[in-house]
Every structure is written in C-alpha cells, then in structure tokens.
Amino acid sequence: MMVSFLALGGRCFYLQFFKSKHYIDASLRQQRSYKSRQPQRGVILDCRGRVLAASNKIQIIKAEPRIIDDPKEVSSELAPVIDMGAHVICKLIVDRKDSGHVRIKAGADPCECDLVKRIHRGIAVESDWQRHYPTGRLAANIVGFTDPYNRGLEGIELKYDKQLSGSAAENIFFADVRRRPIRLKQQEGTLNNGVGIILTIDSTIQQFARDELIKQYENYEAESAVAVVADPKTGAILAMVSLPDFDPADIGSTDPNNFRSRAITDWYEPGSILKPIVTAIALEAGVVNKTEKIFCENGNYRGRGFGRIGEYRRGFGDLTVREILIKSSNIGMAKIGQKLGKDRLYEGLKLFGFGYRTGIDVPGEVDGLLRPPDTWDGYSVTRIPFGQEICVTAMQLTRAFCILANGGRLVRPFLVRAIVDNNGKITELKRPPPPVGYIIKPEVAEWVVREALTGVVNEGTGKRAKLEKWQLFGKTGTANIARSDARGYSEHKYVASFAAGAPADEPAIVVLVSVRKPNRALGKGYTGGVVSSPVAAKIIERTLTYLGVRPDKERQLFTRLRNQR
Amino acid sequence: MSQSRFVFVVFCFTAVLILAVYLRSANNRIFYELCAHYAEQNRLKQELGSKQLLLESLINPAAISQRAGESNTDD
C-alpha cells in the first residue's frame, strides 16, 4: 500500500516538476488556433500621385487535395459556380494530390465565394493581397515587382521592401474540437500596413521618353537602349527608361536580363559625350583658354607612348576649344588631356562623380570604372578625354551634364521624393539637402553650355536635335565597343549617345539617350547624332511643352517687358 | 407588509436580472453589428481600391497613348 502511494506520489512529482512545460504546451496547442493577419503593402506613386504599384485584397478559392475523396465529383460541382472547366479543376487537384492546398481561382467575386462555401468539405475561400501595376511596362524597371508572397524582388519594391511590407499580427483564438475559433484570446504583434512611397518620376514624361526611345530602338534593331530625364537644379529624375523592359504581370516568361534598370547597372565607354566634361575641367584648371587655338595635326597624331590617334572622318588644322567640341575632334581632346596631365584629369573626373555610385535609390547600381592615375600610361591620358579607357553609367553621365547645366554646382540624383504614412501624411522627405559648393566655376559651366554645346546643336554633330521653340545644348557620342577578345575596338558595334538640355540660358531639363549596338547593316546610320539626337530632341520638346516652359522668344520678350517696368 | 416587501425585493431582483441579461445581449449585438459594419467598411474600401486600380490602368499615360495610337491606326 505504502509503495503504491509512494510510486503515485513520485509520478505526480515527476509530472508536476519535470514534465509540466510539455503538458502545458500540449494543452495550449490543443486549445488554441492561430490566424496570421497580413498587412497591406504600401503604394508606390509618381510625383503627381498616379499609382505605379498598389495592393488590393482578392478572394482565392482553394482546394485541399488530401481531404477530397472524389476529385471528379467536387470538380463537376465547382465548375459551373466559378465558370471554369471541370477537367481543369480536376487536373489541378489530382496533380497536387500530396500538397496542403492548391489555388483554383484567384480574384473570385463575392457571389462565387458564397456559393463555393456551401459546396464541399475540402474547398475553401481565403483572402489575400495581390500586387497590381496599373502602368504595366511603363515604369517596370524602376518600380520592380514582388513574388507571390509579396516580397520585393526588384527595383523600388526591393530597395524599400521593409518599409513597404509593414508588420503582420497574429490572432490567437480559443478553438473548438474542429479547430473553429470560439473567441479571441490574444493578439501578438501589431498590424501595421506598409508606408507609401512617392517617386520623382512623372508618368507622363516617362511615357514621352519610352514612346520616343522604343521607336528608335525598334527602328535600328538595337540591343538595348536607355533614356534618362532629370531636373538639373534638384537632381530629381523625371524619367528613366530601359529597353528591353518587362511586363510586371507576366514575370514568369520574361528574360531576367530585362529586369535590370540599365541606366544604373550597365557601364560602357562613353565616347565623345565625355568631351565637354574634360573641356570644363581643363578650362577650370586654366591649362587652356577659350580663344586659344590647338593644332589638330590634320587628322593624324602620333607620338611615343600613346600610339596613333585619328579623327572620326576628316582631319582638322587649328581649332579653338569651342570648335574642338563642335567638330568633336579626338586629337584636340587628346592634346587637352596632355596639357591637363593625369592627376588633374583624374581628380576632375572624380569631382564630376565618375568612378563611384551616384547613390540613387534603386538596387544594383555599379561604380563604373575610373582607374587610379598610377595605373595609367601614355594612352590613358590621351584616350580618356574622348571617352575611352573609362566606363560610366548613363546615370553618371546625366549627373555630369546636370552639373554643367546647373552652373557647376554639385547635383545628386534621386528617385524617391517622400515616404508617406497610411493617412497620406509625409513622414520622411527623401530629397537630399541641396549640395554646397561648385565643381567648376559658374562662368566656365555657362560658357561650355551656352557657347560650346549650343554650337554642337546649331552647327556641329547634333544638328538633328535642333528645335524651333527652344535653344538646345548637347553633345553627341559614338563609342566603339571593345572587342571581347581584348584586341582593340569593334568597327561594327557602337553605343550611340546624345546628352542634351534646354532651354540653354536657363536649363529646365537634361536628357541622356544611349542606344547600344544599333544595326549598322541597315544602312540608316549608327552615330549618336543620327540615332540618339532626334530621340532626345523629341523628348525635350514634348517635356518642355508639358511642363509649360515658355519658348525662348516668348521668355525673352517677357523678360524685356519686365525690365522696362 | 413583509409579504409586499418580499414581492418588491423579488420584483426588483428579477428586474435587475432581466436588465443585466438585456444589457449583455445588447452589448453582444452591438459588438456584432460593429464588427459586421467594420467588415463591410473594409470590403467597400477594398472594392473602391480595386475600382481605383482599374481606373488607373485605364487613364495612365501609357494606356492613353496606346489607345490614341490604336485610334490613329483605325483612321
């Protein structure tokens, strides 16, 4: 008797003090059921409040194959209700026999859901968030996309995934024997919907840029193309187009190469489009002056340590700095590079932002390539001034031209204007503080823009970009692509670029267009002046009209009248 | 006297009990109605959201440009 009581006491002691946690957990597991509440992912808007990405709740009809005994019967019962073929439903159930559940229909309407709930054990209705991209391909390379679990995978969706996601909450219920909730026990975590993000992109300008670029991209059967439109005063990116692009509603069948935003992920040797930047550095350093004539060797410049440099077409004699830019003389630029010397050239290019990221709010940005001067040789100091031996991104080039257009003041490009909470209240302004200081003197920048680069459009290689209403400034670039076998440059593959801005006396926008590998065999041309400058001109014309920028004549008249008063 | 007091006490007690039951059920009903309205409000909000998205997909610059292009081709 004593032994039995002792054994019973011992067992009770063991259960109470050693196994209590196990049984408490088991009991709670039995009593409780858990239901996770997913937050609504934040919206992404353009600068005018147009929706670029938003989440909405949809009803999903699901089947649980493991508890469906007769898939044929369930399918034929379900088919007329949700307007799907019975064989399709049956196949979905049978193919996923071992999985927990299978999605039959997403986006069912409330009537269908009511009818479905009455049908059969094994068919259920659940609600879930679905991401929508109303503008489709238009801003897909910037906005990015999410996976089926609403996690950001590309673009702004990836960069701001944490803020857009918000935080989930879990409701814990007391449940009956069939796991149906009886009443709420407690809530773990707080449900916070994701915040909204306002971009600097304007969908209308984005559409102008895409519209014009895609025509030329298809017309010249190019490999890829980018266009960037920026406000030179603030650095706000108004449009950033990358082709080929993708449809965010059809990710599965898209080549992953098309996901990236090429304006920040692809680097290339810029070619002649870099010449105004180097010229500005040289003028700032005082190694050349605006009236000085430089002998351009009649198109054949040779020397020990830097090989032979030729011109694109015919040779030139004596040219001023302005004429070097207008005629896009390689030899003139090589001589400017030699006068500047490698250290000053390197420091100047670094100040303009080459060789490191711009810090724009899209993932995947690359640094470009600007080798330190101790690795340069005689070739480098004569080739970099006309855009070889240096690799840049389209965004870096845009920033450099924005600096010129902004009177030499530093510009930092940005894409996210503000973050707003669920009530539309701005919680964080993302616009970077106005940068302090000048990269080059305002008079140098103004001379390069108003005298030299307007000359390129009026009388030089960028004539096709000339507009009637506004005076453009710009520079063309036709860069040979280096051969993959490292044996010099290809004579058939080019990057045709054009960087421009307008109005020249008070730039409101800067546009960069780069078309990679236009098909030369078509016989339509392949240079920056032929392929890219008309695109940039049309983008500028449409954008300035849209922004309400007065034509030059009207503006001058207005200024004159104001001064008379 | 004492009988009428007893009846009065029983009456009051019963009335209080009935009131308590009524208040409790009213509370439950109001709570249920609140939840139902809250759910309805959420449903309407979602419906409005989906309509807004539909509208956005129709009036965004890309869609307008595409439709303009199509109508030009038809002409």
Q: CA-to-CA gap between the ends of chain B?
A: 102 Å
Q: Overall pLDDT of chain B, averaged?
A: 88
Which structural class should the secondary elements of chain A be placed in? alpha+beta
Task: Give me the strand/helix succession of chain B.
Answer: HH
Distance between the termini of chain A: 119 Å
Helix content of chain B: over 70%
Molecular shape of chain B: rod-shaped
**Low-pLDDT windows of residues of chain B:** none
- Report the sheet with the most strands of chain B, covering strand number, pairing sense and barrel closure: none
Strand percentage of chain A lies at 15-25%
Number of helices of chain A: 19
Report the C-alpha radius of gyration of chain A, rounded: 32 Å
* Quaternary state of the chains: heterodimer
Report the major sheet of chain A: 7 strands, mixed
Shape, per Cα inertia axes of chain A: elongated
What does this structure look like?
The complex is a heterodimer of chains A (565) and B (75). Chain A is α+β, with helices and mostly antiparallel strands and 565 residues long. Chain A contains 19 helices and 21 strands. In chain A, 36% of the residues lie in helices and 23% in strands. In chain A, strands 2, 3, 4, 5, 8, 17 and 18 form a seven-stranded mixed beta sheet that branches. Chain B has 75 residues and is mainly alpha-helical. Chain B has helices at residues 2-59, 61-74. The chains are: A alpha+beta (565), B mainly alpha (75).
Summary of the model, kept short:
Chain A has 565 residues and is an alpha+beta fold. Chain A contains 19 helices and 21 strands. Chain B has helices spanning 2-59, 61-74.
